[in-house]
Structures are given as structure tokens and as C-alpha cells.
Amino acid sequence: MSLSIGISLSVDSGFPVSNQLELVTPSSVSTQNIKKVTTEISYISATTKQNNRTYQSLVNEQSTNTNLKSITDINVEQISGKQSHEIDYMLTLISDDVYIRTTMGIGDYVRLSDSELLKAGIEPANLRDETTGFQAGIYRNGDLYIVAFVGTNDLKDILTNLRQGFGFDEAQYHQAVDLARTARITFGENLLFTGHSLGGGLAATAALSVGKPAVIFNSAGVSDNMMKNLGFSPQEGRVIAENGLIRHYVVEHDLLDVLQQKLPVSQPIGHKILLKYNDDLEESGTGFPNNLIRGLKAHSLEKVLELLTIYKPWSSLNDEQQEESLVMLNESDLSVSA
């Protein structure tokens, strides 16, 4: 009998992990007839283990401060608005975790399995569509539910970014709205959304469609046409998002953010919190190669997590202090020299 396990990993990209278990056992009749059983298994990935350790350290740190509300006892009304909250770090981990379909969640935030989704009345197929590239996951912690959307991870998603950016109707955005409305009916008021890159654009659209908060990271834009489809004028939709419905963390030099500012495409929505990039020595130069490398690193969730760990913006008492702790920059500081 031979047991072979094939695992395909994309390190530090946040992309999904393919995991297959292939069991090969000789036939009782003839060794020439090989019987193969292939099944998809759930496992705890190295990323999940690391995220669990990071989450637990945050819980331990928080528990020493009696002035802070437990991050396992959260009501969305208490964490909505422009001000950063501790849960924003947790949502970064979830936005990373959702890329890998077979994970079971992070810490106290359990990812609903297909059987749990069916029990709740949600068809698992509605959370992943290979035709459009749409993928999402739903997490639960007590009575809090989080819908997390997968970001750009293949050519279909890149095309969605481009087409949506130029104002075309895109199926993934409508699927995000449908899922948001279903989740709102199924799980009630204690619901929020999160996502990174394209997933951030989907989460922002979902939040706007049901009036529940979202926290997003290095997000893709939301088109004027999409907001009109939701019943808002573009200006009205952006004001609602900016006034606290959506918090948008952006890393300085993020390549997607730079491109969106320079091109005539749809812009992200929400209250923008800019995290100052800490240059590595080899990236300190100027010019296209260094700027490209820096821009790609800045876009990654790994860099978002690193900077949130450094700045801890949720420890600020008000927006003014938060701006000082994050070293907020002017939009002009984001320019990339060729």
C-alpha cells in the first residue's frame, strides 16, 4: 500500500492552497488493477497555525488591559465607524485565511463548513463559483458572523478588477450583494464584512447593500454603476461609506492603490486609514524595479499585518491621535517615480 499526498502552496501570496489526498491500494484480485480513492480533506495549514498563534498573542495582550472590551464579545454597532478597533487585526487574519478553502478558521472565529451552511439555509455553491471566480467564506464567533471575500487570485479576478474599474457590470459584485442579503436574513443584525484587494471591493459593495459595516484592506474600487444598482447616487454611496460604514486600510505605496489613483477607473470607498510603509534596505532606492517590488509587497496582507502590529491603531483614543500614530500621509506622497 502506498499513500501519497500532494500539496501545492503559494507562499506569502494569500492565494488558495490545493490539497488532495490520494490513497493507492493493490486490488485483492491482481496487483495490476490499482484502485484509487481521491478525497478532499480539511487540515490546519501552516498559515492557519501561524495566524492562530498571532491571534492568541493578541487575546493574551488584550486580557491584561481591563479597559478594553473582549475581542470575543463583539457587537458590530460598537466597532463600526472611522476609529480603528482590535477586531480589525482579526479581520486581516480572516481575510488571509479565507483564501484557503479547507481551513477551519482562526482562534474563536470558526469557519462554517458546508454542512453548517446547509443547516443555516445557505447553499455552499453560492460561496464559490468557478465560472466567475467568486469565492467567499462565513465565520462565526458567538453570535457575530463575518462574511469574508477572496481577493484577486487568478486571471478571471484580474479581468473582473479591470472591467469593474472601467464601470462594467461584473457578476462577482452582484454575487457579493446576493450573499450579503442572504446572510443578513439568515444571521441577523450582528453581521460584518471583510476582504482584501478584489475581496475588499466585494466586501464594500456587500456592506453598502445591507447597511452593515465592513473593514477592508488595499481594496479594489466600486463603480458608480454598481452604486446606482444598489439605489444610491455615486456621491451618496461614497459619503455613507466614508462616514463610518466602511474602514479601508491602505499601505503606503500599495501598487493597486497607486494604479487606481493614476488611472481613470473606479475608486475604493470608505474611510481611508493609511499605514506608513517601513522600507527594507534593499528597497530604499528609487526607480521602477524598487517601486514595483515595494508596491507588490505593500499590497500583500503580510505587510498589512506587520504594520498593524507595529502601529496598533486601535490603541488610539480618537481620530487625531490615530492620525499621529499612523503617520498619515498626503495623497501626493503616494506618487511612484518611473
Automatic annotation (TrEMBL):
Domain of life: Bacteria
A Pfam family hit: Phospholipase-like
Name the record gives this protein: Phospholipase
Organism annotation: Photorhabdus asymbiotica
